Amino acid sequence: MLPTNNWLRACLDSGRHMLRPAARPVHRGFAMSTVMVPVRALGAQHRERIATHLLALGERDRYLRFGYTASDEQVRRYVELLDFERDEVFGIFNRRLQLIAMAHVAFAPTDDYHSCAEFGVSVLASARGRGYGGRLFERAVMLARNRGVRMMFIHALTENTAMLRIARSAGARVRQEGSESEAYLQLPPAGLDTRVSEIVAEQFAEVDYQLKKQARQFWSLLADMQEIRQGVRDGRHQAAE
Description:
CATH superfamily: Gcn5-related N-acetyltransferase (GNAT)
CATH architecture: 3-Layer(aba) Sandwich
Strand content: 15-25%
Number of strands: 7
Mean pLDDT: 78
Low-confidence stretches: 1-5, 14-32
Number of helices: 8
Distance between the termini: 66 Å
Radius of gyration: 22 Å
Oligomer: single chain
Helix content: 40-55%
Number of domains: 1
């Protein structure tokens, strides 16, 4: 979800509380997973893959992701407006190089709110129950800290219990107003550990992606060879008749 005026206003309001400790700071309630999942950064060259992923979401999933039942045209418009130079977009690929989960960390468009960012995530129904949403949130927190963000926002529908559960488990404060909820998580400053972790995570994801890509190319080559061999056998059989 792209930043809105309400989001910016909430960022400014919540920033006033940063002078005193949060009730549940991130370093107490949020523990990085010890199991590495390859999360790869996405760029402008991945727009079509991102669109394919989001268009594969069902009506209810689109409703939970965007806050309304986005049409195909609205989804494509969202993808076209992604600013890969300002924001962070990243995802998880399966062995078929299908984008099965992705997240968008939207940074403020002006310097007035440079310490704030908003997190949005989507996971295909076939990939649910594997903790991918949590892994993407971990990555988002790491990237945000390295970009100097002190407050991460999650704007979600109150019925989006999975997203709010991730936020609460990280120590976020959740404010509910009718059908909508606003969660914000105070982040500690970046350190050497977060910067090194980002480098390691990016390298791990890139190696994983290249291996999957090579595997697909290899299996495609084998399939072509099998077709050729079958053609040769068929030709020999016809010649013998």
